[in-house]
Write a structure and sequence with these properties.
Strand order of the largest sheet: 2-1-3
Oligomer: single chain
Mean pLDDT: 85
Distance between the termini: 68 Å
Order of helices and strands: EHHHEHHHHEHHHHH
Strand content: under 5%
Number of helices: 12
Helix content: over 70%
Length: about 325
């Protein structure tokens, strides 16, 4: 095989394979993926518009929800349109620089999504366990600092990914056995030892994911303990319903992310179709579910959307 031109990596073109073995179903697979993407975009844009126009919603919970919505929009938009071009138009080519850019957005915004889940769990903990001090603890200044810290963490820890890959020589196949430019799928194409690069990526992902997951779990355990102590059964059921939907979304995000992580580390015998399909799920399902769990099930947002629709109809 002729080595690739390593002197000008930006001119290289890679080929996204899609889902190996299911190429004949790409058109059909793209239909539910596109439907989920449309719901994610409409839902998250609606949340941003409602919170922006309604001053009564400028509270910690809804401000964090806006940050999560922006993250979902960037995360899904950085993958889904390109994926649909692959599924429906057979557009397998992707320029190396575009591949690195997509990779940066995917991994950094996935870390931000995890961070905003943690921020929202902290907000719910303070609101339920210490409601009298909620407004004084989570001021707008602190909320802005927490949001900036989450964004800075994602950018700082995952900026090295494209930089490291740009320095590697590529002399193997240019085919990326994936639906998008996933870090591990690209690094396998290098013709040098990439053990240190892989260890850095896996270490960063495991540390961020495990720390966020641990503190989210602690927050919800404390929340559940406080909920079961509420004197009113109706209030307890309402709080449980709200927390239950939040926990389901978080579990979907972390379970699919952990499966993908463990597959890279240990699951060499897992069929590539399963691995790639699950890897797509943790990028598409949370942006699809978040507007439903945090938007439709939130009375203030739901009432505002319904009242706006009534005004337009009348």
């Amino acid at each position: 095989m002729v080595p690739l031109n390593t002197s000008r990596p930006s001119s290289m073109t890679f080929l996204l394979l899609g889902i190996p073995g299911l190429e004949h179903l790409h058109v059909w697979i793209g239909i539910p993926f596109c439907s989920m993407y449309i719901v994610a975009v409409v839902g998250n844009v609606t949340i941003l518009a409602v919170v922006r126009t309604e001053r009564s919603l400028h509270e910690p919970m809804f401000l964090f929800l806006c940050m999560l919505s922006v993250t979902d929009l960037v995360l899904s938009t950085s993958t889904m349109p390109r994926m649909l071009c692959l599924f429906w138009l057979g557009a397998h080519d992707i320029v190396f620089d575009a591949c690195l850019t997509q990779m940066f957005f995917i991994h950094s915004f996935t870390a931000m999504e995890s961070g905003f889940f943690l921020a929202m769990a902290i907000d719910r903990y303070v609101a339920i366990c210490n409601p009298l001090r909620h407004a004084t603890i989570l001021t707008h200044t602190r909320i802005a600092k927490m949001g900036a810290a989450v964004v800075l963490r994602g950018v700082t820890f995952f900026s090295p990914h494209p930089i490291l890959l740009r320095q590697l020589p590529y002399c193997r196949t240019r085919i990326i056995a994936h639906t998008y430019c996933e870090f591990m799928a690209v690094v396998k194409l290098a013709c040098v030892d990439t053990g240190a690069t892989k260890r850095y990526s896996l270490s960063v992902a495991s540390v961020i994911g495990s720390c966020d997951g641990f503190f989210i779990a602690v927050s919800y355990v404390l929340i559940l303990r406080a909920v079961f102590r509420l004197p009113s059964r109706e209030a307890s059921l309402k709080a449980l319903g709200t927390c239950g939907s939040h926990v389901c979304v978080i579990l979907v995000f972390y379970s699919t992310a952990v499966f993908t992580f463990l597959t890279h580390r240990f699951g060499h015998n897992i069929a590539p179709q399963i691995h790639i399909f699950i890897a797509n799920m943790y990028l598409l399902v949370p942006p699809f579910l978040n507007p439903i769990a945090y938007g439709i099930r939130t009375k203030k947002i739901r009432d505002h959307v319904l009242s706006s629709l009534r005004l337009k109809v009348s």
